[in-house]
């Protein structure tokens, strides 16, 4: 048995397999723990900057964070496409294609990462133009951007590495890598930002260091476990038909990711117009929303792997059972999360900022932030299902449709209700995404599994 085989999830061999709670949570639980370190990192960064005592500093960090969401998360297709394609190769028992997908994704990640570095001055100018912060907030954002952009190649490489790991259902390894990246970041953020007094620059440098450490270690672990007998040649890695399929899948996921981040950027942009206190309060509450999102992403990752694997194995019963079970768990956990935020959310706000006016504003809008766990549960999970199934075109189309409704709702609600309308629009956007994708599943599943029946 090779080292790589020793970390195979149960039932990784090709063909029919049984979906159980144990199998779901062997993937979901480690990744939930791993992904929770990401919003935890956001909470720490917010707390570090929030304790500097100036709303402009917190607002500048919020604007910078959204800019990097737009830049990096636009390339989240590197993780998502890799996960779906590797999972389907697992279902077929095709180890050679698993490695080939990894090398294709890594090559794209490095090229795109270098492109980000080269275009960084232009990206900063465009980002500041889109966000339109005041002079003091813009200065803070520029400082953060100057350092954080250096993580570009490593951040995208981490997407490809994590996508490969998740596609194979190796949740424990994914947890390890996420913990190393975000743990390094958290420790250095506190050390550089607060202890050494580097402020926003220290927070950005901590992020760069975490990404680089994670990328180097992740690559060494994954590459070290490849079986040389299954290594694909370069002709197989860059085969035209495979690249065409990958780029088509990547294109649709990239558009979907860009529209999603545009929705969050639009929320920040409108929040900017409502004043620095409201913008800072929304930044605190968005950290809470991200906790719910990353918390539920573990189940979405389980859905990705099991959906892709069932399609690769051409086994409809596993697909249906995985869908039913993950939906039930997602809704149940989301309801519990909403209740927890309603009960303890204000105490969490107090930990994140010492600015009294920001605290008061965050208390007012807390119920809306708590509700996002429930309204977003199906959206997060259905993304996992559609990524694993490589139904990327449907996911793209439903995202665009939901975004158009979101824009219309903001145009109607914000003038009437201010920031309450802004948060109501976000919840409507999340709910529409989940319900529209769920409605498409029966027809798409029937089409996908028809040849095997």
From TrEMBL:
One GO cellular component assignment for this chain's record is: plasma membrane
From the record, give the transmembrane residue ranges.
Answer: 23-41, 61-86, 107-132, 144-166, 173-196, 202-223, 253-271, 277-296, 326-345, 365-386, 398-417, 423-441
Topology within the bilayer: Multi-pass membrane protein
| Family of this protein | Belongs to the multi antimicrobial extrusion (MATE) (TC 2.A.66.1) family.
**Where in or outside the cell?**
Membrane
Q: Which Pfam families did the record assign?
A: MatE (PF01554)
UniProt source species: Sinorhizobium alkalisoli
**What is the recorded name of this protein?**
MATE family efflux transporter
Domain of life of the organism encoding this protein:
Bacteria
Keywords assigned by UniProt, alphabetized:
Membrane, Transmembrane, Transmembrane helix
User: Which InterPro entries does the entry link to?
Assistant: DinF-like (IPR044644), MATE_fam (IPR002528)
- The answer to whether keyword Transmembrane helix applies is yes
* Molecular-function GO terms, alphabetical: antiporter activity; xenobiotic transmembrane transporter activity
């Amino acid at each position: 048995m090779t080292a790589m085989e020793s970390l195979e999830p149960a039932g990784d061999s090709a063909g029919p397999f049984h979906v159980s709670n144990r199998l779901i949570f062997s993937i979901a639980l480690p990744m939930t723990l791993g992904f929770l370190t990401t919003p935890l990192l956001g909470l720490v960064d917010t707390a570090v900057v929030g304790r500097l005592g100036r709303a402009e500093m917190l607002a500048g960090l919020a604007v910078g964070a959204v800019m990097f969401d737009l830049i990096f998360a636009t390339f989240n297709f590197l993780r998502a496409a890799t996960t779906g394609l590797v999972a389907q190769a697992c279902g077929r028992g095709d180890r050679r294609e698993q490695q080939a997908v990894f090398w294709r994704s890594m090559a794209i990640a490095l090229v795109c990462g270098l492109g980000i570095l080269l275009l960084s001055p232009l990206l900063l100018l465009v980002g500041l133009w889109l966000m339109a912060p005041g002079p003091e907030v813009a200065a803070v954002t520029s400082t953060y951007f100057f350092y954080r952009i250096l993580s570009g190649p490593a951040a995208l490489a981490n997407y490809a590495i994590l996508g490969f790991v998740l596609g194979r259902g190796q949740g424990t390894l994914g947890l390890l890598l996420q913990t190393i990246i975000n743990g390094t970041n958290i420790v250095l953020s506190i050390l550089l930002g607060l202890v050494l007094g580097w402020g926003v620059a220290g927070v950005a440098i901590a992020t760069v260091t975490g990404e680089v450490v994670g990328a180097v270690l992740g690559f060494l672990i994954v590459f070290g476990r490849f079986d040389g007998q299954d290594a694909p040649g370069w002709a197989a890695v860059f085969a035209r038909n495979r690249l065409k399929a990958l780029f088509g899948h990547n294109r649709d996921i990239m558009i979907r990711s860009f529209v999603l981040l545009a929705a969050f950027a639009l929320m920040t942009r409108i929040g900017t117009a409502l004043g620095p206190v409201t913008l800072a309060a929304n930044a605190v509450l968005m950290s809470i929303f991200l906790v719910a999102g990353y918390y539920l992403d573990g189940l979405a990752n389980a859905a990705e792997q099991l959906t892709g694997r069932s399609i690769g194995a051409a086994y409809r019963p596993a697909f249906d059972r995985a869908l039913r079970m993950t939906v039930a768990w997602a809704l149940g956990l989301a309801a519990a999360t909403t209740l927890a935020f309603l009960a303890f959310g204000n105490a969490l706000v107090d930990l994140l900022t010492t600015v009294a006016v920001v605290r008061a504003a965050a208390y007012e809008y807390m119920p809306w932030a708590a509700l996002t766990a429930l309204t977003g549960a199906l959206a997060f999970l259905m993304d996992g299902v559609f990524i694993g199934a490589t139904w990327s075109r449907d996911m793209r189309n439903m995202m665009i449709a939901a975004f158009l409704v979101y824009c219309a709702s903001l145009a109607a609600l914000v003038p009437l209700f201010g920031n309450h309308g802004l948060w109501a629009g976000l919840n409507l956007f999340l709910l529409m995404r989940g319900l529209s994708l769920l409605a498409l599943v029966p027809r798409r599943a029937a089409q996908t599994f028809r040849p095997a029946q």
